[in-house]
User: Fold these one by one.
Assistant:
Number 1:
Amino acid sequence: MAQITVQIMSFEVVKAVNPTKATNIKALAESGGLTSVPSEYTFTTNPNDQAEANDPEYSIPTIDFSLLTSGSPDQRSKVLHDLHKACEEWGFFMVINHGVPDKVLKGMISVCEAFFNLTDEEKKEFQGTSNVLDPIKCGTSFNIAIDKVLLWRDFVKVISHPDFNSPHKPVGFSEAASEFSKRTREVATELVNAISETLGLESNYITKAMNWDQGLQLLAANYYPACPEPDRAIGIPPHTDHGLVTLLIQNDMGGLQVQHKGKWVDWNAPPNAFVVNLGDQMQVLTNDKYKSVWHRAVVNSKATRISIAVPHGPSVDTIVVPAPELLEREHQEPVFSGMSYKDYVELQQSSKAYMKPCIDFIRI
């Protein structure tokens, strides 16, 4: 964590980027003749802060979803044990055999790629406002009004639950997004119920306490074009997610890195698996037992990476606090104060929390 703090502190002394200089990164990357990273995109990291590879200590936890939902009692008990260990030690895990057809996953990646291939004029229609909870929003970087370094990514975000929203372009986007959002929500619900059980709670404890039926589900697609100097740019810098759990898929290009035991680990999940990570609201709810873990997206010089993250959170008006049942059982005092999920999301996207651990703002 100290290394990240140093990065963040050095980041803050840079003057904010002039928003008029911000550009669509796809257009910039495809402009021709780009041999170096423009200064406003230059993101430097500690040269010793490289990802670990092929180390048995950093083997990625894998959860077989089919055994969680239809396995024998012994098999399910084993999966719950593995899930508990993954949540406690990693905050990240990979889910296989989840039942969502490959054609749904590949179809979603395909229509997202088609969205990013729309003309700039077409995409302007979906830019949204400064409200972080706009039903539909697309753009580049993080927030060009407060960015100190621009990110090597374009994005489109839609709220898909409790009300489903979608751009009306390109053809087929809405239908693919609706099916994908529905299927990922089903998987997320089962996982959240299982996580409840790993905490010794009733399986529906979290969904009831977090008003899951009205919970916020986002669909956030990211486009990272090939970069001429990948070591001098960043797709998304170190951060944690604001919700309860996030499910992610990607095309064949890796780029996700997770911090584990003070080291960065490459997370190269196959395209037909979900990468799942815990968010800040899960850390609050469990009173620090299960942690929301730092992760980042790096870029490459070879090909475009597309990832689709689906954060799932409480309803926006739910005030999230440590679970009283856990506090009583563990004889603990709460280490977080309560805040509505809407206020937390807005805080994370603000200049006040820019490049800082947002969860520290509510730590007692």
Number 2:
Amino acid sequence: MMGDCNGQDKRDFTSSELGTKEYWDEVYKLELENYNESKDIGEIWFGENCQASVIRWIKNCEKIKKDSAIVDLGCGNGALLIELARQGFSCLTGFDYSENAITFAKTISAEENFNNIIFEVGDILNEESCLAFNQKYQVCHDKGTYDAISLMSDNFKPLQMSYIKVVKKILNEGGFFIITSCNWTKDQLLEQFSNDFHFNEVIPTSTFQFGGSTGSKYTTLVLIK
């Protein structure tokens, strides 16, 4: 767990290549090549069930309208935004620091005729890097981006603070921050974000059993600014 009174990083994992831009550039280069050959959109991060649960929650939330502004923080192949567009949501933005990911997302959305989705190259740790950071959103969604940032460096605290600064900047007062993580537990996430967001609810996830104990592969929280 991290975020004690001395602000020290107490992660129980270390940095890895999954936190590097080079890794994700290569992943999305290969996935775009595969898509051009077979029309396979590639991996949905954390699986289709996770994505479906988040979309179902957004659809059922009375405070989120079909024209509410929604941004995907590290959109990858754009699968979540494309599915939201299928469900009738019309004000959708995604950004990713991998140019290959954005090229891939634009390619898929164009072939699906969802040309109203805005995709931009941008780094959430640099609020000057794209126009998306000058807008306000009712929903900020993150599925794996905070995890990747936490793997960038063993000195995570400055990265965490930069991330939180941008999310606070672009999210409406009373807006929803939906975050899915496989690196951090519910309690760890709440500790890290409690100064700027309050807890709304957990979006249920699929569980597994091992040795008589029940667990989950990831955690999805809804927080409110």
Number 3:
Amino acid sequence: MPPPSPLAIATSSVNRLIKEEASYHRELLSQEARLAKLEERVAKLEGKTDEDENAEYELKQEVLGAPPYFSIRTAIEETRAVFPPLRQRIADAVAKLEDRLEEGKAKGGKEGEIAAAEETVGRAKEVGK
């Protein structure tokens, strides 16, 4: 089996980065939903004296992020911090893919690889909007 062409490698690299960004978006939505749910529980517990005080304390620690607990807010901030460098890596990979695509067209590369690369470039530009 011949090794993959530079065009195929660049295409798969962009596809992987697009999937990675989608995964981080799903993670962020999940974390934000969890935070909203926890904040709602804390709001319900406040003002009630018969509730378990330890449960209220633990919820507040998680929501507010007091040490030594790992705060959900910290996790959300860290996930959001991933996006700018990831988008830059995607932009760089797309630029490289476009260069490889032009080379592939000029050298008469495989039609399947060229079509896959064009589709990937289109998807990457849609994701970047």
